[in-house]
Amino acid sequence: MFIEKGRLDVLDGAFVVVDKEGVRTHIPVGGLTCLMLEPGARISHAAAGLAARVGCLLLWVGEAGVRLYSAGQPGGARADRLLHQARLALDPDARLKVVRKMYEMRFGEPAPQRRSVDQLRGIEGARVKRLYQLLAQRHGVKWKRRQYDPHDWAGSDLANRCLSQATACLYGLSEAAILAAGYAPAIGFLHTGKPQSFVYDVADIYKFDTVVPAAMQVAGQAERGENPAAADPIREVRHRCRDAFRKAGLLQKLIPGIEEMLSAGGLTPPEAHDEAQPVAIPEEPSGDVGHRG
Q1: CATH number assigned to the domain covering 79-275
Q2: Cα–Cα distance between 137 and 131 in angstroms, integer?
Q3: Which of 43, 45, 81, 103 yields a CA-CA distance of 20 to 30 A from 208?
């Protein structure tokens, strides 16, 4: 759920957003995986504490989610899993095996043999470029290339703005799953050097099965003036992504998918020495995924 231009607080044990007119909008705590706070949003100490208690990830993002500035960890990290993830990332052979598994999960076929991580990154980039072109053609979108300026949101064309909004939704869910499973968003395998490198790794596996088709469909309909996409395409993208996540059962797939890709590394996984219960991500709320205060 996105929150823009409102104050997030707690009332009667539940999240509530208060806009500048004093209008209160209640938010169901149990149905939230992630709250994305856009510019103009403020949050109270009580709200941050409630988010931590219920395992709701807080993300501070740019306008329409185009940038991710910071994240509040919901408390699921485990030292044994963090160390295991780091061992896999630092071992060249194990890292290559994980990247190959990610390629297989993304494209449904084994990665080419005798290729390095950099070579697989190049092959993947070429395939992704072609997928963008095919989906744009299918939905009648005027497509040039995937490009946007995080400092100039309005300067991007409609298709790129829709894609940026869609991927922001997917990144939020992916980071929530990574943290809930006890891993680190920054320790990536194909992507490296970014605070959300592993988020991009995980999200890329599901991107073209969920959010990219949704974004392209909305962009095409908006360009043709078809309602409701033409009225507010960014809001419509969020709704389509919500529906795509539910249809694909994404919340049930993310954590098992993370475990599957890491198990391909070949190193002995950590043993559970505590009584921790299996992690689970709550289902999405059925209502609107955006509050515009």
Answers
A1: 1.20.120.920
A2: 10
A3: 81
